[in-house]
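task queued by scheduler; priority normal; single chain, no ligands, no partner chains; default sampling; output format set to C-alpha cells
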Amino acid sequence: MQREITHSGPLLTLSGSLAQVGWSRQPVLDCNLEAARFYCFRPLQRFRIKRWDYYAVFTPQRFFSATIADLGYAGNIFVYTLDYASRDLHEEGLVIPLAKGVVLPRNSQSGDSRYEGRGVKLDFTVDDSNRRVRVSWPAFDGGKGIEADITLEVPQGAESMNIVIPIGRRRFYFNRKINCLPARGSLRYGDLFLELDPKTCLGSLDWGRGVWEYRSFWNWASASGYLPDGRTVGLNLGCGFGDLSNATENALILANRIHKLDQVTFDYQSGDYLKPWHFTDNQGRLDLSFTPFVDRTATTNLGIIYSEVHQMFGIYEGFAIADDGEKVWIRNLFGFAEEHRARW
C-alpha cells in the first residue's frame, strides 16, 4: 500500500523524527533540516546530511548533466556529456573540502544553487515557471571547454515524484524527481554548438536531501521523451535503500501527470552491466527491457569515503499501464539505469 501525502507541513518534528512518511504529487513538506536530531553532539550532524541538485538534459543527439552536491564533509561538483552516435562520454568533477562555496536552497520550489571556484561556475536558478541551468567550465576536456545556458519550462500544473521514507531508526531520504521539462537554450562543447528546441529536448531534476547509512546501495532508472502522439513520457524507478513499505519512488509520468507504481524489480547482472536489464512490477502494470550501450563509471575514493556508480545509458522498450488503464507502449525511449554503492 502506497501512502499519499496531501497535507503540507514540516519534514521533521521538533524531536527530529519524520512528521509524515509517504509520497506526493507536489512538494508539500518544508525541508527543515535544522530540526535533525540523530547525533547527541549536534555539531557533527552537518557532516552526515547529504544534499544535491542533479540536472539532466536529453536532446536528440546528446545527453548533458550538471550537479551541485554537499555531502557534509565535502562538496561534489560534476558535469558530463554523452554523444549517442559516437558513444563519446566525457566527465569532470571537483571535490571541495567542507563544501566551501557550495550554496543549495532549503526547498526545491525556489532559491538558487551555485558554486564558483577553481575556474568553474555552476548556477541553477528557479522561478515560478522555469528552471535555468548555467554552466561555465573553460578547462573542461583539456581546454575544449563546456558552456551551457538552458531553461527548463515547468508546465502549469505539472506533477512530480516526491518521496519521504525512513532509513533505519534515525535516518531518512527526502527526494523530488521532475521529468519531461521542455528545454530551450544552448550547449557548447569545444567546437560543437547545439541550440535546444523544446519540441525535441527535455530536462529532468533529481533533488535529494537526507541522511543515509554509512554503507549504502541503490538502483535508479530514469527517462524523458516523447510518444508518437506528441505527449511527453517519463520513467522514474528506484529501489535498494530505506523502508519502502509506505512509499516507493516508482512512477510513469505521462503528459506531466504521475501514474504511481508500487514495487518494481530491477533484474540485471551486477558486474556485467552492459547485458540487458528487465523491469517489472508487482501489479502487472510495467514490463520494460533496457538495452545499455554505454557504461558511465564514476568512482570517488577518499579512503573511508568511497563511491562507485555504474550509470548505464541505453534504450527502453515495453509498456506501462496508466492509472486509467491505458496501455502506454514505449518504443526507442532513451534513458539510463544505475547501480550505486557508497561508504559515505
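post-processing summary
- The chain has a mean pLDDT of 95.
- The radius of gyration is 19 Å.
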